[in-house]
Amino acid sequence: MKIIDLTHPISPDMPMYPGTGAPTLNVAYHHDEYGFMETHINLYSHTGTHIDAPAHLYANGLTLDEYPIEQYVGKALVIDCRKLDKGEKISMRLLEEKGSVLYEADFLLFLTGYGALWGNPDYFVDFPILSDAVVEWINSRKLKGIGIDAPSFDPVTVDELAQAAHDLCIHRAILKTNHTLLLENLCKLEETGSELFTLCALPLYTLNADGAPARIIAIIES
């Protein structure tokens, strides 16, 4: 068995969605003075590798804590999108190349190659997004979740948060169903192979969670 960590670490200098403040990790108690160490952590709910809940964009949408724990574990399949040109959308053709195994997956994870640009300004520019046909197919399948090794499922084109929220068309189309969660800022998807594997995507367990940082791992059976 092989376990692959698909999660970026949280740090004060990590890339953040434009307009969102970076996390702080301040040591509040030191070994020398107190005999133990404890860190005060301050961050936004969509920091780093995280999961979006419907409540992120819909006042009556489900929060992460309202889903059963089974929502966060299942069979996953990676769709390799690295051959797409900049600005080209992810089409059903790429999904259909997987054949019948596509219909066995609870999670689809889109490998764009942008995970390797983490920390580079280009990380936020021209990554592939889903076509309307793929969004419709995902909604018809009622998948547990979809993931991407990029900062968002929608283009990052604005700095103003209010305008950005207005333009999150793909987020809105998928989250409105209350079925499929969005996993963003993944990494190392290229290491998972081309077959089904077990995905564990466990968000920080907080009440009324519109989203939360998550530790997301792939379990590959040998």
Word description of this protein:
With 222 residues, the chain is α/β, with parallel strands linked by helices. The protein has one domain (2-12, 44-220): Putative cyclase (Glucose Oxidase, domain 1, 3-Layer(bba) Sandwich), CATH 3.50.30.50. 14% of the residues lie in helices and 25% in strands. It is built from five helices and ten strands, in the order ββαβββαβαβααβββ. The protein has a seven-stranded mixed barrel with strand order 4-8-7-6-5-9-10. A two-stranded antiparallel ribbon has the order 2-3. α2 (92-96) links the parallel β5 and β6 (107-111). It is globular, with a radius of gyration of 18 Å. The chain starts with a strand and ends with a strand. The model has no long low-confidence stretch (mean pLDDT 94).
Structure characteristics:
222 residues, alpha/beta, Glucose Oxidase, domain 1, seven-stranded mixed β-barrel, 5 helices, 10 strands, globular
How does the helix and strand content classify structurally? Answer: alpha/beta
Mean pLDDT: 94
From the spread of the alpha carbons, the general shape counts as: globular
* Secondary-structure arrangement, i.e. CATH architecture: 3-Layer(bba) Sandwich
